[in-house]
Amino acid sequence: SHADHDLRATDIAMDAGRLTFRVEQQRFEIALPCPALLTNALLAIAVAREVGVPLDLIAEGLQEFQPSAGR
Predict the structure, then answer these.
(1) How far apart are CA 67 and CA 1, in angstroms?
(2) How far, in Å, are 19, 21, 23, 49, 51 from residue 14 at the CA level?
(3) Angle CA 51–60–46, to nearest 5
(4) Edge to edge, what strands does the sheet with 18-23 contain?
(5) Measured between alpha carbons, how far apart are the two ends of the chain, in Å?
(6) For residue range 8-19, what is the model confidence (pLDDT) as tens digits?
(7) pLDDT tens profile 32-71
(8) Which residues are paired to 30 by β-bridges?
(9) Rounded distance, CA 49 to CA 67, Å?
(10) Letter string b/e over residues 9-22, b meaning 16 or more CB atoms within 10 A of that residue's CB
(11) For 1-71, where are the E strands, in sequence order?
(12) pLDDT at residue 30 tops 70
């Protein structure tokens, strides 16, 4: 079963030019209020966790994410 690998975003909000959500107890913030980024962020979190990156460091990396111009 892959149930132990499931990620669930909670407390999802888009305001003030930001997308915020939680995975487990960790708060994540992305500098663009785009619902499509939530799926991409969850995929990135899953991959990073699989290779041993702690959630707090993943959150720091996503907070520093800057979208490409024109995106």
Answers:
(1) 35
(2) 5, 9, 16, 24, 29
(3) 30
(4) 9-15, 18-23, 26-30
(5) 37
(6) 999 999 988 899
(7) 878 888 999 999 999 999 999 999 999 999 999 877 766 5
(8) 19
(9) 22
(10) beeeebeeeebbbe
(11) 9-15, 18-23, 26-30
(12) yes
Tokens of 36: 């499509």
17 vs 7, 23, 24, CA distance in Å? 24, 20, 23
Residue position matching structure tokens 């969850």: 42
Q: Calculate the alpha carbon distances from 33 to 17, 48, 65 in Å.
A: 5, 22, 12
How many other CB atoms are there within 10 angstroms of residue 54's CB atom? Answer: 11
